[in-house]
Backbone:
């Protein structure tokens, strides 16, 4: 694929990673892109780079437009190596370029690369004239690293927000109106749930800071460029940042001999009879990062595990560790499980929920060995009661 002009004189020159399936812990079933943007003005500016092994793609696209030695500024909005990984090589091609980054960005880049580049540390709100255009740098710390910064071009109503508003999609299409909204919304939700969700407060502040800007295009550093559905994605980000959910339930479980699974489905049956939409996910079949896509919209979270060696299954322990790091708030929780003699798992899960600050309206259920028809009927009744509470 050649470079793509996203605005007159502004080009996408990134790289497409068709094959990546794991992005530091979560599944990227659709691959991803690493987006970089070249601005041609009186000064030539490259905003962000790509992961190191896609440097050749980025360089080839730049060379279609201009000799890379003519680059005057390279903007690093974020230190993480999927965006900064090609800095060493591109700065060899453009030895006179100034590297612009945030205060924390300079510290991080020096620590990562041990290079004494020609840094310029941009203060939040600082403006840089590059000719007929102006670059405005706004710090957005912890969206999702301390160094995070966005670059705004007021003359173009263009926001270059690095990881914010991104998705992991490898595609020949570059714009949001070229991909079906349902696919794009789900991919963006998965990205937010697995990377950005712990920083909802900071996202809210960033949205407020950006709220006064005129924006008709958002060009993130992963995935699709937003130009037609900006109001839609901004509305979703506001909901996610505020931990707003829907009146729906998510059941997450693992099972040894099927008893915990029977409890899970009895709960699902009760919830369904209470007219609550319910999603059931087995950790044997669903990756924890995909579970988070369901969790981001679900108010009621039901989690179950049998007891093994005086605790929960390792798969459930891993899921709860992952969940704790992402810190979803304002949920209703319910724990369940089965056991042979110890029976600790369900109580441990309930304690986890309370430690997360979730409301737990009904005490956990924990059934010995194989549940019988009467016990499953009681579990179903609990599901209906939880549905009433949710409703």
Residues:
């Amino acid at each position: 694929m050649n470079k793509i002009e996203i605005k007159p004189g502004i080009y996408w020159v990134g790289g497409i990673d068709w094959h990546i399936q794991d992005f530091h812990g979560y599944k990227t079933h659709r691959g991803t892109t690493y987006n970089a943007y070249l601005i041609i003005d009186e000064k030539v500016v490259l905003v962000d780079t790509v992961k190191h092994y896609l440097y050749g793609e980025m360089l080839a696209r730049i060379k279609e437009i201009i000799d890379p030695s003519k680059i005057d500024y390279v903007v690093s909005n974020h230190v993480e190596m999927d965006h900064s990984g090609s800095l060493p090589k591109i700065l060899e091609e453009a030895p006179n370029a100034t590297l612009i980054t945030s205060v924390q960005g300079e510290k991080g880049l020096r620590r990562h690369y041990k290079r004494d580049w020609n840094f310029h540390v941009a203060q939040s709100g600082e403006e840089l004239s590059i000719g007929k255009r102006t670059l405005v740098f706004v710090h957005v710390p912890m969206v999702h690293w301390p160094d995070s910064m966005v670059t705004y071009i007021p003359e173009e109503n263009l926001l270059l927000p690095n990881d914010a508003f991104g998705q992991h999609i490898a595609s020949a299409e570059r714009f949001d109106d070229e991909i079906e909204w349902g696919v794009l919304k789900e991919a963006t939700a998965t990205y937010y749930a697995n990377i950005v969700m712990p920083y909802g407060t900071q996202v809210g502040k960033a949205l407020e800071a950006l709220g006064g800007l005129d924006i008709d295009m958002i060009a993130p550093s992963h995935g699709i460029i937003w130009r037609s559905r900006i109001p839609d994605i901004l509305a979703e980000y506001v909901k996610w940042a505020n931990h707003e959910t829907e009146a729906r339930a998510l059941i997450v479980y693992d099972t040894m001999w099927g008893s915990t699974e029977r409890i899970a489905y009895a709960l699902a049956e009760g919830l369904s009879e209470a007219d609550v939409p319910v999603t059931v996910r087995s950790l044997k079949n669903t990756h924890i990062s995909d579970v988070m896509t369901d969790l981001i919209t679900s108010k009621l979270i039901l989690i179950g595990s049998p007891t093994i060696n005086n605790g929960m299954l390792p798969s459930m322990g891993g899921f709860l560790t992952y969940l704790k790091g992402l810190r979803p708030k304002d949920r209703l929780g319910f724990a369940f499980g089965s056991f042979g003699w110890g029976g600790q798992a369900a109580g441990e899960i309930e304690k986890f929920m309370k430690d997360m600050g979730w409301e737990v309206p009904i005490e956990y259920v924990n059934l010995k060995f194989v549940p019988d028809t009467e016990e499953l009927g009681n579990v179903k009744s609990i599901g209906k009661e939880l549905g009433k509470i949710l409703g």
In short: Residues 373-390 form the longest helix (18 residues).
